[in-house]
Write a structure and sequence with these properties.
Mean pLDDT: 89
Number of domains: 2
CATH topology of the largest domain: Nuclear Transport Factor 2, Chain: A
Number of strands: 14
Oligomer: single chain
Radius of gyration: 18 Å
Low-confidence stretches: 1-19
Largest sheet: 8 strands, mixed
Strand content: 35-45%
Helix content: 25-40%
Distance between the termini: 36 Å
Length: 287
């Protein structure tokens, strides 16, 4: 398939699904994720990623790089990778979705060779309506003692969204929202997150189990006494104007230690038409 620009994909997705009368179901992205896992188990990590990658799909190695470019230039990766979706949403029109959950990477037979963590995957539909992997990243942390709870929620069928007829303006709005949050973070991390976090928001930070809920996230930020400065790179949103994503770079300071991270945020529109963070993940950039 020839390379298609983001704008062209957005336009085609709009024309293909603008007349949808019923919302998509979250099972669509769960099925895509499960099929992806089966591909990786059967054909290996490299082949699996290449098979499901969006033309514009990215990963962080550690800078932003296209999935197809990265895996086309690496040898077949050793080891096994398994993951389980535990958190998922899909837009009303089904053109944008995400899943998140625990993963285990094993490069040997003993438990000492296993790496534990959580992943976040963002999916976008192509011109044929098939979900393709747009963004993939994750964090490492010790093996969790408790199994993560399942949170799959369907789009609200009673709130049929107003179709976004201008994909360029829609993207600009979510980018401006992301930049507004970043500006707030430079003044007060706690204050900025209080303003933008969804009550159901999840926070993924390297070395720690995922946190759920505003109170737990704010308590973590306060206890760790970290300050954050961030810069947006790009983002996008669904044509049904109910789900969006942004990503960029962040510098996090704790005491005298400053570390660099990539971030990805998932945004949802609330009943007052305000964009809130449903998920944020920081992936460490190793020096």
């Amino acid at each position: 398939m020839k390379k298609i620009t983001l704008a062209a994909i957005s336009f085609m997705c709009y024309t293909a699904i603008a007349v949808a009368q019923t919302p998509a179901t979250v099972s669509k992205v769960i099925e895509a994720e499960d099929n992806f896992g089966k591909l990786v188990a059967r054909k290996g990590i490299k082949a699996g990623f290449l098979a499901v990658a969006d033309d514009e799909g990215i990963i962080f190695r550690p800078k932003v790089v296209k999935i197809t470019d990265f895996y086309a230039n690496v040898e077949k990766q050793p080891g096994t990778l398994q993951w389980t979706p535990k958190f998922a949403r899909i837009s009303y029109n089904g053109d944008l979705a995400f899943t998140a959950g625990p993963y285990v990477y094993a490069n040997g037979k003993s438990d000492d060779d296993k790496v534990y963590g959580d992943y976040v995957s963002v999916w976008r539909s192509d011109a044929d309506g098939k979900l393709k992997l747009l963004i993939d990243l994750g964090i490492q942390h010790p093996e969790m003692e408790k199994e993560a709870t399942v949170d799959f929620k369907e789009p609200d069928a009673a709130k049929k969204p107003v179709i976004n007829k201008d994909p360029f303006n829609g993207k600009n709005i979510i980018l401006a929202t992301d930049k507004m949050l970043n500006q707030g973070l430079t003044l007060s991390s706690l204050g900025a997150y209080k303003e933008f976090l969804s009550p159901e928001g999840r926070y993924y930070f390297p070395g720690f189990d995922p946190m759920t809920g505003t109170d737990k996230i704010l308590k973590f930020l306060n206890n760790e006494a970290i300050s954050i400065s961030a810069e947006n790179i790009s983002g996008g949103r669904s044509t049904s104007n109910d789900l969006a994503y942004t990503y960029g770079r962040a510098r996090i300071k704790k005491g005298n230690i400053v570390s660099n991270f990539n971030y990805v945020r998932i945004w949802e529109l609330d009943a007052t038409h305000k964009w809130n963070i449903l998920l944020e993940v920081f992936s460490a950039i190793e020096n």
